[in-house]
Design goal:
TrmB-like, 7-stranded mixed beta sheet, Transcription regulator TrmB N-terminal domain-containing protein, Arc Repressor Mutant, subunit A, ArsR-like_HTH, WH-like_DNA-bd_sf, 239 residues, 10 strands, alpha+beta
Length: 239
């Protein structure tokens, strides 16, 4: 049981709450007073522990009688609940680790194979633009046509990294005033752009389709050269 206690406590279930749950498993339905006496818990505090267990889905009140009795949710159901909780937590972390992997691969081109990765959502695209700038050795080229990508983090990254590398920014006439950057950052505008990108040691190309911004990220040298060529073609025509 000690191993179970440590495991449940790792899920944020306190020692007293574990005691109450195990007591309900072993004793069956019990009142708050019964639990307080059996576990030597102050009666005034036992209700708070029970309420937390109810909120976590581990204890169910049995209505229709006074004083109110409580029963434990079957351990098999609690196990499924904890498995789902872990699975959801890991799924929520995957985009973060995917972004970290992309940064790692851009910093270790010899150790990593050529890759092509689909990036979905304005938040992930905006974060990756900043990551590409920060990981770039010499020059970074940005084409930003969508206002939701012009985040505080992006502007701060451009301002800071422009002390170290050359950064060129291409945007639309309508969005020019959103780029409040040091004079060392060269900015040009065009009337409109159907998509954008970020180019450094690696490349991100993105468009907006169906209201969602999605892109393709790669360290493939051939794709990088195509992106640079296209950027300079538009850059020379911009004002």
């Amino acid at each position: 049981m000690e191993e179970l206690r440590r495991l449940l406590e790792a899920f944020g279930i306190g020692a007293r709450e574990v005691d109450i749950y195990l007591a309900l498993v072993e004793r069956g339905e019990s009142t708050a007073r019964d639990l307080a006496e059996a576990l030597n818990i102050p009666y005034t505090k036992v209700y708070a522990y029970i309420e937390r267990l109810r909120d976590m889905g581990l204890v169910i009140p049995q209505g229709g009688s006074r004083p109110l009795k409580y029963r434990a949710v079957p351990p098999a159901e609690v196990y499924k609940l904890l498995v789902n909780k872990v699975s959801n937590a890991l799924r929520s972390l995957k985009p973060i680790f995917d972004s970290l992997q992309l940064i790692y691969e851009s910093k270790h081109p010899v150790a990593s194979p050529t890759f092509l990765t689909l990036i979905r959502g304005a938040g992930r695209v905006a974060d990756l633009i900043s990551d590409i700038i920060a990981a770039t050795d010499n020059e970074a080229y940005l084409a930003v046509p969508f206002p939701e990508l012009i985040t505080y983090r992006l502007l701060a990254t451009i301002a800071e990294e422009s002390k170290r590398i050359v950064i060129k920014v291409l945007t639309t006439d309508q969005l020019r005033n959103k780029f409040d950057l040091p004079p060392r950052v060269e900015i040009k505008t065009v009337n409109e752009m159907f998509g954008g990108g970020a180019i450094g040691n690696s490349v991100l190309i993105f468009v907006k389709y169906g209201g969602e911004i999605s892109g393709v990220y790669s360290n493939e040298r051939f794709i990088l050269e195509i992106a640079i060529t296209y950027f300079y073609n538009v850059w020379q025509k911009a004002k």
